[in-house]
Amino acid sequence: MANKKKKSTSASKSSGGARAAKPNRNAAPAKKGMSATAQWAIIIGIGVLIIGGLLFNGLRDGFDDGGEGVIASESFDLPDLTDDDNPDSRIRLADFEGTPTVVNFFASWCTACDEELPAFRETARALEGQVDFVFVNSNETGDWESMAERNDIFEFPLAKDIQGISRNGLYRDLGGTGSMPITAFYDAEGNLLQVAPVPFNEATLNTTLNNLGFLG
pTM above the 0.90 mark? Predict the structure, then answer.
């Protein structure tokens, strides 16, 4: 607990005591500095931004050399959720060779996924034939189908990530640690270019696609 400031006792309480000195009215007012709490808040905020940027760039750049990106590409062999007539149907990265491919992961419990799916749907429709979009249900604990119906994405390749020991093989190989949403971007040759563990809207999605050269 902070100590309370004591009242000044410089002036004598008795009539015979010395009078307190008069304040200098011509003196410039003292400048109030930033509080220690505010300074620490700014320092911590800057630190969070720097660390967050390093983590994101590290996750993204870690795949640029073809190292872990190769693993992520090999894991892209998933059960097709839209082919009821053929339960053995698969969705593979090789199916999209020759076209840049965007893979968006979603789960019914992920509110950010629910909010961004319309942007992916509309962008996918606008870029049909130019960029392929694949939706992957991962880390699911509930009713993924109603979410897919609500966001009208059954017209696109729709897969379930159940590969690997963790049963979320592609998601894990892309650097996923349990949080959602996450989106991966592959070039026309199947090379993993970027992984974005952030939500998108139409503007930010199109900016990313443009920066990756998908809209050229």
Answer: no
